[in-house]
Design brief:
about 170 residues; mainly alpha
Length: about 170
């Protein structure tokens, strides 16, 4: 199991932060340079479960799964980067130390379900939360598609990504 995690972490290290650096240098600098987070281990669960264990809104998680099934195999990676960018203000407002930034990043998909400005109660609250999470998920999907057009996955990057994941699949 540890070897599987290490393989996934190295695949993420080779891909997630370099993509983030290309699409949002300020956010990359805050996470990697200021906070000192060198490995994107916060995204390990996002990628390995396709966000299904981190987003508790069934409609939002289902939407992501639909997109992942019909799109390029690296779409979960691009969605992870997009999830960071969609929540960029929250991340940039976090204290730039390792533990604060890591905790903010680790809980991002769950924070997608929070709506700080919404104070409604009862069934209206759940409807509002669902709308908020779907809006953020749709924003992340749209950004991920845009990133794929601008930063097209090369044969080398896709091959590298897949070779790492082949090791994760039980034979």
């Amino acid at each position: 199991m540890r070897q599987d995690r290490a393989v996934l972490e190295s695949a993420l290290q080779l891909s997630l932060f370099p993509i983030l650096q290309q699409v949002d240098l300020e956010l990359y600098t805050h996470i990697v340079d200021r906070a000192g987070l060198k490995l994107p281990i916060f995204a390990r669960g996002w990628i390995s479960s396709w966000f299904a264990t981190d987003i508790t809104d069934v409609a939002a998680a289902s939407r992501l799964l639909d997109v992942f099934f019909v799109s390029h195999p690296t779409m979960p990676l691009y969605c992870a980067v997009a999830m960071l960018v969609v929540n960029r203000e929250r991340i940039l407002q976090s204290n730039p130390d390792l533990s604060a930034v890591y905790n903010t990043l680790r809980n991002l998909p769950l924070m997608v379900l929070e709506d700080d400005d919404d104070i409604t109660v009862g069934s209206m609250r759940s409807a509002s939360v669902r709308f908020n999470s779907m809006t953020q998920v749709e924003q992340a999907i749209a950004l991920a598609i845009q990133y794929m057009y601008v930063l097209v996955p090369t044969v080398r990057s896709v091959t590298s990504f897949f070779l790492h994941f082949i090791c994760l699949v039980p034979h």
